[in-house]
Each structure stands twice: as C-alpha cells, then as structure tokens.
Write a structure and sequence with these properties.
Blueprint: E1 13-17, E2 24-25, E3 28-29, H1 33-47, E4 52-56, H2 73-82, E5 89-92, H3 102-105, E6 112-115, H4 129-139, E7 143-146, E8 168-170, H5 172-186, E9 192-196, H6 201-211, E10 217-220, H7 222-226, E11 236-238, E12 242-244, E13 250-253, H8 255-267, E14 270-274, H9 287-297, E15 303-307, H10 309-321, E16 329-330, H11 335-341, H12 347-354
Parallel strand pairs: 1-4, 1-7, 4-6, 5-6, 7-8, 9-10, 9-14, 10-11, 14-15, 15-16
Antiparallel strand pairs: 2-3, 12-13
Length: 355
Amino acid sequence: MKTIRNLDLKDKTILMRVDYNVPLKNGKVADDLRIRSSLPTINYLLEKGAKKIILLSHLGRPDGQENLEFSLSPVADTLRKLLPEQKHIGFYPLPEKGKSIIDYYDKPDLKVILLENLRFDPGEEANSPEFIKNIIDSTGANIYVQDGFAVVHRAHASTDAVAKFLPIYTGFLVEKEAENLTKVLENPEHPVLLIIGGSKVDDKQPLIDKFSTIADQIFVGGKIAADGYKANNPKIYVSEDFDEDASGAKLDIGPVSTAKLADYVKDAKTIIWNGLLGKAEDPAYATASTIAAKLVGEKEDATTIICGGDTTGFVENLMKDNKDLSYSLISTGGGAALEFLVGKELPGLKVIKRA
C-alpha cells in the first residue's frame, strides 16, 4: 500500500479520514484512544509542511440526518487539548452542494479543520461519488490520507468512492494496524496463542476456524465458554470452571482455567486476544480478564495484539494504573480487525492498493 512516507506534502491541502467514532458521556469524550491514535499522522503532515488538514469522520448512526446528539463538536474540543500547539482548530459543518468552504478556513494560523459528522448526509453510507466529490471540490484538497482503520471494512464514500477523485495514501495508524495483523497471519513467531472471549459465537467462530491452522493453542473463555461451547480440535481449550453469582450464573472463568491460560501465555511468542473472559464491567467478575491483560502486557518477548472494542477499552483503562503494561498493537479496528484476520478483503484497503 502507498503510504505518506517520502511523499511531498509541502503546501498540500489534505483530506484525512480518521475514526473519531468515540463514546460520549455528558457531552464529552469518554475514551480518546481513537483520537490519540490519529495524532502521529496529523503531526507528521504538519511537520512536512501541509497547508491544511481537513479531518473527516463519523460518529454513531444518525441515519443520514443532522442530529446534534451525534455531533463531532465534543471531539473538536478534545482535539484542541491534544494538539495544544495548534491554537486554532476549526470545526465546520459539511459543505453545501456547489459551495466552497475555503473562505471559512483560509487563514494562515488555521491548519487543522474537523468537518461535522459525515453520516449527517446519506451520501456517506450510500458510497456516493457526488457526496465525496463535493467535499473535495469545496476544500480544494490535493491528497487523501486514509487513517481510519476502523472503517476500512465499509464501502462508504470516504473509504471507497473517494478513490475516483484523489490519490490515496495510508497514514501511520492504518499502516501499523495492517502490518501487525498481516504479520500474525502470514509470518507469526511460534508458539501462537489465540485467546477468545465475549458472548457471540457467530462473531468468534470464523476467527477460531481461521486460526485453527495457524495457532498452536486456542483458549476459549467468556460467555461462549460458559454457555457450553464445544470443540473437537485438540488445540482448543474451553474453560472448564467458572465463578458464579448467587443465582448460579457463570460470570467469569475460574481459577483452574485462568491458571491454564497463564501457562499458555508464558510460552507464547505471538498472542492475539479478542473478547473479555468474564462480565468485566462488574469488578467482581473482572479477575480473569485483569490477570490475562497483565500477563500479556508484561511479555516483552512476544508480539501481542489486542482487538475488539470491549477488550481494547478494558486494556486501555487498566493501563492507566499500570504504566508498565505495553502491547504491540491495541487495535482501533473492532469489526475491521476481525474481518482482516479472517481473510476478508476490505474495501478501504483495496482502493489504496489500486489507487
């Protein structure tokens, strides 16, 4: 894939797709992982002399309607705090059809502009060439940078149709995600351990099937194990004991299974973890997930991939109080990472290869 490395960026106006689909609480950003993950690319573009950077994102599912509940305004506030050297960060509505917004942001001290939620217009999810072309024309953009890994599995206007009009390059986040995920698929260091948790068997089974020929060991916990998941493959260990509440509900894997997981982690050189091992939003049933996160995060001799929204959020929160934990990749991808790992072709990456 073509990347922004060694690209002449001086005086260029750049459209940059990011994924700022972040949780909000009381009108403020509750988890800024995805915003922080975009900063290396933004800072690089600024350092290389980009004239303007116009950031494109969506938030939630406003169904093609302008709904302030899904406004990116809180994200703009967070971005200003994370980029304090950029004293002026613009935040503007999507441009009206046929109208330029250059006059609004053509100011020397205004380098970064975030446009309002792309999904306020039905053209985004409809993969409308006219919708994205209007944004390109109204901003005068020369280059498109795809750095929203979490959306590359969607054939939307900002991931697919845009390739009809601008050259596309990957930012550092997309590059990092794709490289790490490709490595564990094509050239992992063995032993390879896949840790599976969560509750939806239909979501997890394709990943288990894919890694049945790649992994040396697959560990299954979470609700799918508690609900009686069965496997005939000797590589697959399904948690055998559980911590229960007063009603007998199995809400975390038990000490025997956790000890077995610790043994697998100790020997592994490549670890992919998707899905929490218990009902971790309740501290009483977060024990196994906490132990797993610490064991995996303390391994300095392994490639460690954390993917899935609940799992990455849990690990991120744990890292706030455990500064010694580190991972090769805490994926921002969610569904995109899972589709990548099971071998599906992602529209937002396909157009970069052919652009």
